[in-house]
Amino acid sequence: MPQDEFHLVAAARQEMIDHGFEPDFPPDAERQLAAIQTGPDRSLRDLTDLLWSSIDNDDSRDLDQIEWAERVPAGIRVLVGVADVDSAVAKATPIDCHAAREATTVYAGISTFPMLPLRLSTDLTSLSEGQDRDATVIEMVVAADGSIASNAIYRAVVRNRAQLTYNSIGPWLEGKGAAPPKIATSVDLAAQLKLQDEAAQALRECRRRLGALDFDRLEAQPVIADGVVREITARAANRASQLIEDFMIAANEVMARTLRDAGVSSIRRVVKSPERWPRIVELAERYGDKLPATPDPGALNAFLMRRKQADAIHYADISLSVLKLMGPGEYVASRPGDSGQGHFGLAAQDYTHSTAPNRRFADLVTERLLKALSAGAKPPYTDAELDAIASNCTLKEDAARKVERAMTKRLAAAALRPRVGQSFSAVVTGVTPKGVFVRVFDPPVEGRLMRGESGLDVGDSLNVKLLSTDPQRGFIDFGRN
User: In terms of DSSP bridges, do strands 444-451 and 435-441 run parallel, antiparallel, or are they unpaired?
Assistant: First the structure.
């Protein structure tokens, strides 16, 4: 194994431990895993004849969500199938206890640390192509205006007929690329995805009218060959990733409303009003725009769209600045009668996480709550348990971000070693007692400003020079030009 990879893999594991994770599954969980036998429940509704498909990253194997759609008089009927992880992992069993502690799968660039054993998350409970699997199905009719006219939730047996990827489907949906092989050889699959895209675009436009924020997000993607980090590339959203995001958001809203209307306590995903709203107002004023004195998602999104139209090339800069100033989301327990805090960025009052139970424990909890409701059974969690779970999920999600950020810096530092001395355009992403941090956009990496940091704040644009990198410590040091 090349030396760089050895150090980076060891560093990823140590970051996990340092941030409170347990990267190894305990012996009792391994024993439980060896005894698990799964198979579809043939007493459930059989939906295996539908032309289900999934769209995910090129290397994803833990598939949580599949989709299907048909045109109906009231609009487009959309089914979202979510992996039924609970059927294989019962509450309070060793694997479940480990998942509850870890709360999330951590993607550390050079290593992935799964919340569930890989035999489950990438095989037995993954909605893999050609496999019959139990699923929770969210059915909704998307009207022409993007509103959800009706909905239902039930269990069924499903079969993913086509495992697709964002990189191949996105350009085709946008008319910028040829149809990938699975699409080129199936007129029905092509029509199915076009219909799904039509429904997704209607959902997205409806959210925009309600004030949902539309960001341009660039994610760093390391390119590793023969154990060496060759470069860091930018992964941007496209029509395929937006399609999955739109269906995910709609399904999450339907699940949250279903639990609320049934008077069942649940876990919500909330993003509070930005604490640094005055700084966002200041940023808008810099571009000759004006925002209200109190947080208003509709006004903020209108400003963002004006900036995107005026300067699409640099829109990612302002987009990233606003994201940073909004702050992270969190999980909270919601009881019957509570007035929800809502999700500021999505302009949604009822929102949960439910469509990735192979990767997030909050989603597995929501799945269990819905299954109990459907069966007319007592909720499997007390309010006190939901409080504790929500708190731990927030804590571990924050810890996971820190692990991923630290490893992204290490990988980026390794990739940038040949570019010391070069200059880059950057934006300030953090001003802390530890220093000023900036992000450059090509490649999309973050580092500390070691020279010329006085007087800067989040959102300021500047030119920087790469001074040095230290892959083992994850240091990328810039100086202001």
Answer: antiparallel
Say how many Å lie between the first and final Cα of the chain, rounded: 39
425 contacts: CB under 8 Å, gap ≥ 6: 440, 441, 442, 461, 462, 463
pLDDT of residue 322: 87
Mean pLDDT of 330-345: 83
**How far is it, in rounded angstroms, from Cα 290 to Cα 306?**
12
State pTM to two decimals.
0.89
CATH superfamily ID and name for 420-480: Nucleic acid-binding proteins (2.40.50.140)
Across the range 354-362, mean pLDDT stands at 98
Q: What is the mean pLDDT of the chain?
A: 92
Q: What are the φ/ψ torsions at residue 134 (nearest 5 degrees)?
A: -70, 145
**Residue bearing the bigger pLDDT, 37 or 343:** 37
Pairing between β-strand 435-441 and β-strand 461-470 as defined by DSSP bridges:
unpaired
User: Which pairing describes strands 423-432 and 461-470: parallel, antiparallel, or unpaired?
Assistant: antiparallel
pLDDT digits (tens, 9 = 90+) for 127-148: 999 999 999 999 999 999 999 9
Q: Are 31 and 94 a contacting pair, CB within 8 Å? A: yes
Statement: residue 1 has pLDDT above 60? no
Parse the chain into domains and list their residue ranges.
3-271+330-411, 277-326, 420-480
Per residue, the 3-state secondary structure of the chain, as one string, reads CCHHHHHHHHHHHHHHHHCCCCCCCCHHHHHHHHHCCCCCCCCCEECCCCCEEEEECCCCCCCCEEEEEEEECCEEEEEEEEECHHHCCCCCCHHHHHHHHHCECEECCCCEECCCCHHHHHHHCCCCECCEEEEEEEEEEECCCCCEEEEEEEEEEEEEEEEEEHHHHHHHHCCCCCCCHHHHCCHHHHHHHHHHHHHHHHHHHHHHHHCCCCCCCEEEEEEEECCEEEEEEEEECCHHHHHHHHHHHHHHHHHHHHHHHCCCCEEEEEECCCCCHHHHHHHHHHCCCCCCCCCCHHHHHHHHHHHHHHCCCCHHHHHHHHHHHHCCCEEEEECCCCCCCCEHHHCECCCCCCCCCCCEHHHHHHHHHHHHHHHCCCCCCCHHHHHHHHHHHHHHHHHHHHHHHHHHHHHHHHHHHHHCCCEEEEEEEEEECCEEEEEEECCEEEEEEEECCCCCCCCCEEEEEEEEEECCCCEEEEEEC
Is-contact 361 85, C-beta < 8 A?
A: no
**Across 456-463, average pLDDT:** 91
Cβ–Cβ under 8 Å, residues 160 and 54? yes
